[in-house]
Amino acid sequence: MSTVNLFTDGEPIRDTKAPEGPVEQRWDKRRFGGKLVNPANRRKLSVIVVGTGLAGGSAAATLGELGYHVKSFCYQDSPRRAHSIAAQGGINAAKNYRNDGDSIQRLFYDTVKGGDYRSRESNVYRLAQVSVEIIDQCVAQGVPFAREYGGLLDTRSFGGVQVSRTFYARGQTGQQLLLGAYQALERQVAAGTVEMFTRHEMLELIIVDGAARGIVARDMVTGEIETHTADAVVLASGGYGNVFFLSTNAKGCNVTATWRAHRKGALFANPCYTQIHPTCIPQSGDHQSKLTLMSESLRNDGRVWVPVAKGDKRDPREIPEDERDYYLERIYPSFGNLVPRDIASRAAKNVCDEGRGVGPGGLGVYLDFADAIQRLGRKAVADKYGNLFEMYERITGEDPFEVPMRIYPAVHYTMGGLWVDYDLQSTIPGLFVIGEANFSDHGANRLGASALMQGLADGYFVLPNTISDYLAKGPFPKVGDDHEAVVEARESVTGRIERLLSIDGDRTPDSFHRELGALMWEYCGMERTDEGLRKAIDRIRELREEFWTRVKVPGENEELNQALEKAGRIADFFELAELMCIDALHRTESCGGHFRAESQTPDGEALRDDEHFAYVAAWEYTGDAPVLHKENLEYENVKMVQRSYK
Amino acid sequence: MKLTLKIWRQKNADDPGRMVPYELDDVSPDMSFLEMLDVLNERLIVEGEDPVAFDHDCREGICGMCSLVIDGTPHGPQQATTTCQLHMRHFKDGDVITIEPWRAAAFPVIKDLVVDRSAFDRIIQAGGYVSAPTGSAPEAASIPVPQADAHAAFDAATCIGCGACVAACPNASAMLFTAAKITHLGLMPQGQPERYGRVTAMVAQMDAEGFGGCTNTGECTAVCPKGIPFETISRLNADLLKATRKAS
């Protein structure tokens, strides 16, 4: 079993480039301190943006509007399909339209606290500041937000906060915001400032003289390996939740873009911070290909329970009241069914581990609306949750009005990502990382309705302002296709593809992905232990070996080859999985989405260790044991406290 | 259950293509339609055959990437449901299911069940937006929108751009797709300044892409997984008429 030398310690990170001074003045100071690019010179400067979700789509559109020459890439057939489209709940902004005491300071405070004090104050404060501009921008684009009778914007309270600051568009806020960004992007395509490359996947980063200067991308229709060069590269390629195989991510979501950059020198921060959402539809069998989220608003009226007895297979309607365990209400009498995501998820896992789970494989708990239907009437429940009940019935074939829903936690979001400074620049000059792909704003746990806020903050407002300081140093010497670094990057990609195609083994790419995912879920999921993580690391290494000797990728490169696409992504997931486990192993505290069984309070709650772990763990790739660089987190504006929900 | 699938196989754009039968045992009623195809593909890979290419991504009915004409109907037999949300419990043991790609001149087949829908992006490029560069926006609350308009705009804005409307239309018209965007933006105050230029440009682009004309058969709205209302097309036509009058 792995014991020693899983990683080594490196130099701490001392400078995040955040300006000094009061936190509320830092963004102004940075914008004033940064160099600008003359409008006439912008068209001579080119920027590659990988990914077209909220962050990438809004960034590419905005950079195009500013006059830069932008090349935008997505693996889907249209930029409108990026997985931001699936976000349901809403987007936070400190508008204080409700006059209920909200402010930039409060949004900042809630986000730092919600992140369990593992995020960077300067970045989060800026996020809260910019939040108000995002709503203005999206409304101007014609995003059909929910409205009051008087025609003004409606808001709701979300994720347990006490103010009503979440703007929404029914249960499809992500879709509407993304279409806003997509339309702005297509407008720039028409204007000629943005060149769009759909069905293209980034497979390598090109570095020239230490700076990011381009990417290698595969045309997924023809298989052609293309090299694209630019003056700067922006990664907006999303999170890595699909390392678990089953998650609420889209099937194509992957870590390849960020992982390739990591291998070329970009530090990867806090990879173990993953968010597990408590209300998803459970797996129905071995054929399961993805998991579907049900809005957590269901917990406002549904009661969560499992049978008291192990292995109770009775129809839930026949189980009498005194043989049911409403465990959240029992353990957390003051918050009950409304405890935060991480706590609700872990409690569900615990009762299932005890053998009291329900449904296929015993991996589910009931979310019961019988009381709500009796109390409010069937119509009121239908008005509130009708569309969710329909979605549930479509997938499971069961009617929640008749039978209690079954839910189970699922991987939903990854807080970790490439390390970036205050300018959203990675440790590779000229490589910027935005949205879920970076690590910066959510600490160890993301609050509901904050992902959309961060993606659009980065793309519309932060990056377009900070990148100019870098681009002002240009134009940089032109890099030709025959440049040594370009040739080398292209050859490494073709070599890898040839290798994958030549193994000709007896196992499908998906079979490896499923096995890796199950391993990660077991040992690096909702609860992690020293022993389990070490076991996982050993097993991941064995499985990776097996992958490279037994995987079977049919067909050839020069065609649309979905098995080849998958195999390449899985190869990178293997490497990421090991780093996630190492990160989880070294962080012996519990915080946010990271629960270490060894670090809990006497009554079983997460126990943070601020004395030893109030830092960002940024990992350097070496090809062997990774090197840990710590960025210490200092809190000048928020006092650190232990969370409690009892 | 046991099924026979007849699937359109086409190696690339130049290949004429053909229907190929596959037998599949042990299909669980709880599987989604795409999971059933995953099972087939896993088997094909192990047997050394080329797996069936099909587009899909979110698998929760919102990205618009999945397609498939199932037994002659885009997105299959269940109304208001994308292929990825269709489950096998709607089929029975012994069924023979035909699976084909979207059929339209403007959506050429790339491989098997995968088609090129980039024409939709170009229709949006022609004018499916509000020109509001980042930073130029007025304070959000300064633009009130009557709630009823916001609702109707939203109903149109839920279009996922999947192209089922085109696949179902006997003329392969993209009218419902285009009308959804015209309606969404035309009902919002933000969309007014460019309203008439937008409809003219988008319809011209739709024609240029080779989509057919609309003859009001209504097949589009019947298969639309998001239930985009048929009257959006009347709204488009009304705007187009006004635009033409203004121009003359």
Major sheet strand order of chain A: 1-21-20-12-18
Please compute the radius of gyration of chain B using only Cα atoms.
Answer: 20 Å
Our estimate of the beta-strand percent of chain B is: 5-15%
CATH topology of the largest domain in chain B: Fumarate Reductase Iron-sulfur Protein, Chain B, domain 2
Count of folded domains of chain A: 3
Span between termini of chain A: 38 Å
Chain-averaged pLDDT of chain A: 95
Looking at the structure, what is the overall shape of chain B?
Answer: elongated
Counted beta strands of chain B: 7
Q: In the CATH hierarchy, what is the superfamily of the largest domain in chain B?
A: Alpha-helical ferredoxin
DSSP helical segment count of chain B:
8
Structural class of chain A: alpha+beta
Pfam families (chain B): Fer2_3, Fer4_8
GO molecular function (chain B): 2 iron, 2 sulfur cluster binding; electron transfer activity; metal ion binding
Cofactor (chain B): [3Fe-4S] cluster; [2Fe-2S] cluster
Domain 4Fe-4S ferredoxin-type (chain B): 150-180
Give a description of the structure.
Chain A: One of its GO terms (biological process) is anaerobic respiration. Chain A: Residues 513-645 form the Fumarate reductase/succinate dehydrogenase flavoprotein-like C-terminal domain. The complex is a heterodimer of chains A (646) and B (248). With 646 residues, chain A is α+β, with helices and mostly antiparallel strands. Chain A is 36% helix and 15% strand. In chain A, helix 3 packs parallel to helix 12 and helix 5 crosses helix 12 (451-471). Chain A is globular, with a radius of gyration of 24 Å. Chain A has a five-stranded mixed beta sheet with strand order 1-21-20-12-18. A five-stranded parallel beta sheet of chain A has the order 7-3-2-11-19. Chain A has helices at 26-33, 39-42, 54-66, 104-114, 121-140, 173-191, 256-263, 327-331, 341-353, 370-376, 378-396, 451-471, 484-503, 509-524, 530-550, 562-586, 610-613, and strands at residues 8-9, 46-50, 69-73, 91-92, 155-156, 166-167, 194-197, 200-208, 211-219, 225-229, 232-235, 268-269, 274-280, 303-307, 324-325, 365-368, 405-414, 417-418, 431-433, 615-620, 627-632. With 248 residues, chain B is an alpha+beta fold. Chain B is built from eight helices and seven strands. In chain B, the strands form two sheets. In chain B, strands 2-1-5-3-4 form a five-stranded mixed beta sheet. A two-stranded antiparallel sheet of chain B has the order 6-7. The longest helix of chain B has 17 residues, at 231-247. The model of chain B has no long low-confidence stretch (mean pLDDT 97). Chains A and B meet through helix 3, helix 5, helix 6, helix 11 and helix 12 of A and helix 1, helix 2 and helix 3 of B.
